[in-house]
Design a protein that fits this description.
The protein is mainly α and 305 residues long. The protein has seven helices and five strands. The strands form two sheets. Strands 3-5-4 form a three-stranded antiparallel beta sheet, with no helix packed on it.
Length: 305
């Protein structure tokens, strides 16, 4: 059976009650996206030496400020809807009535992420790099909520994936006949976001910037170098140390066996993936200011008169 249109879900699916609470499906999609983004970003940062749970410490700043930014961006780009004679200014904060702007959430979230990164000692750009694919996945999951809300559709279309909107729906444009199909813009954005995830993941795999092991260009030495012997031409070069097995908590709580990058004994086959500590990974990925390797300072001796 060929697809002739994309049906919209029943309006009753947009929300349901749980005791005295009204649960919105759109909100569940957004929450699911935030959880997925936290898990993915933490995994990518942990592979670079960040401590477990550091993303949560950043998110508790980024998400609330992002929500505030999304709301106020909407309000101040729709001034006539909130500021007029006799207007109830309390509606400015009625976020449950709808009205959140993506650009405002990005601006507010960036401010919150900056504060969180400053407090946790993570470089903002390192966090942003780890967040990039996770944010696109979160955005895709949030757009599913638009489908349940019968919103974020475009101009009329006759394409077989045109979105059905009931003429009794408040979102249905005036002056159009019943049965008109519309471009599912939310679906286009989901596909676009997932393509972006694939491109970023592919690029990360090629450069080593998002995988479980640091890039060869950032590695300093091999296992055989640490053993005091140069690798023979027949022996394949060892790959950079990996963040696995990872240790939990701070470096001081790691086990002695993982306290430093392991090396092969003289005459033994070099380990192609020697484990390393989070400190070693931080130094290679430069994810925090404290991880920088600073040159030793040698004071200039006083001149002899």
């Amino acid at each position: 059976m060929l697809l002739t249109s994309l049906p919209s879900p029943p309006p009753s699916w947009a929300q349901f009650t749980l005791g005295p609470l009204t649960i919105h499906t759109y909100a569940l999609c957004i929450i699911a996206g935030i959880i997925a983004a936290v898990i993915i970003t933490q995994r990518r940062l942990s592979a670079r030496g960040a401590e477990d749970g550091v993303v949560v410490d950043i998110v508790i700043w980024a998400v609330p400020i992002g929500i505030i930014g999304a709301r106020f961006y909407h309000v101040f780009t729709h001034v006539g809807d909130y500021f007029y004679p006799g207007a109830n200014l309390g509606n400015i904060f009625a976020i449950w009535d709808g009205g959140n702007a993506l650009y405002g959430s990005l601006l507010g979230g960036a401010v919150g992420a900056y504060i969180g990164c400053r407090r946790t000692g993570i470089r903002l750009w390192s966090f942003a790099d780890a967040l990039a694919p996770a944010m696109l996945i979160a955005q895709s999951m949030g757009r599913i909520g638009n489908y349940f809300n019968h919103e974020l559709f475009g101009l009329p279309t006759t394409l077989p994936w045109g979105l059905e909107i009931l003429p009794t729906d408040t979102m249905f444009p005036d002056g159009l006949p019943a049965g008109t199909l519309f471009h599912p813009l939310f679906l286009y954005e989901i596909i676009w976001n997932l393509i972006g995830v694939a491109i970023i993941s592919s690029s990360s795999a090629d450069t080593g910037s998002g995988g479980d092991a640091p890039s060869p260009s950032t590695s300093s030495g091999t296992a055989s170098d640490a053993a005091g012997s140069r690798p023979s031409e027949s022996t394949p070069p060892a790959t950079p140390c990996s963040a696995s097995p990872r240790t939990s908590g701070h470096p001081s709580s790691s086990s002695p066996s993982a306290s430093s990058c392991s090396s092969s004994r003289a005459g033994a086959t070099p380990n192609r993936n020697p484990p390393c500590t989070k400190k070693d990974a931080r130094q290679r990925w430069n994810i925090s200011p404290a991880a920088q390797t600073r040159p030793e300072h040698h004071p200039t001796p006083p001149a002899v008169s």
